[in-house]
């Protein structure tokens, strides 16, 4: 019998409560009072309980009516939300936004953009993937993500659209008691080769047999940026890191920035961009997310490099 409950009955029930009487509800809904009374009576019949006490001048909710009012509102709101989402999807709004973020991209900026995204598109779930190096491109090219926030690199083919977001500075660091940190002046690259380099890596096919900015034959490879930072702090090697990730460690003296001889400035800046397939450009939600991410990065100088350069990916 409960399958016979209609949304119209539930809406009339809710309005009758909000307006305080059947006659007021009828005026609100532009219906005859008899039609409103009949719908409420049929709802009570189907539910098997009395929703209103009609013994007074105005109908009052019974305990059962009070208990079921919240359920009625939840059902109506859920259906209204589903209808609104369907209308948005028919207008081109994505049912879900999936974004892959490279490990070097500032997570604080992503979190701030995501917070605003939740307010702007409450009905669109956000799925984030965190990948390193070629793993981010693999996620994008295989269609698991519709947008990538990744470094500009030779891996970006003509079938991908690139929109610059920001420049991220990379620094070479080591623990304060590491032998390289104790050297004075610019450090020759031959000296780097005498010490273990901690290299960021991934498990994607695109990285097989490829090295990025590796100066030492002695390498330890880690697929997680946080793990690399912990290893650096523990003096297990030296390596490149995004400046915003190790800024507090450098300021506190836990890590020391290494001055490397003959290392071009442009090799120390990552040009980060929003990347997506030309064949499947982002919809309204994706377009909004890209623009908001760019705005957040433009306004926050805590992790933004002062000068943008095009650069290949690096360890």
Write up what this structure looks like:
By secondary structure, the protein is of the alpha/beta class. It folds into 3 domains: 2-90, Winged helix-like DNA-binding domain superfamily/Winged helix DNA-binding domain (Arc Repressor Mutant, subunit A); 97-166 and 269-299, 3-Layer(aba) Sandwich (D-Maltodextrin-Binding Protein, domain 2); 169-268, D-Maltodextrin-Binding Protein, domain 2. The protein has helices at 7-19, 22-29, 33-47, 63-90, 107-120, 134-141, 189-192, 225-233, 243-252, 284-299; strands at 52-53, 60-61, 97-102, 126-131, 147-151, 160-175, 197-200, 219-222, 239-242, 255-257, 269-277. Strands 3, 4, 5, 6, 9, 10 and 11 form a 7-stranded mixed sheet that branches. Strands 1-2 form a two-stranded antiparallel ribbon. Helix 1 packs across helix 4 and helix 5 (107-120) packs across helix 10.
Keywords, please?
alpha/beta; Arc Repressor Mutant, subunit A; D-Maltodextrin-Binding Protein, domain 2; seven-stranded mixed β-sheet; two-stranded antiparallel sheet
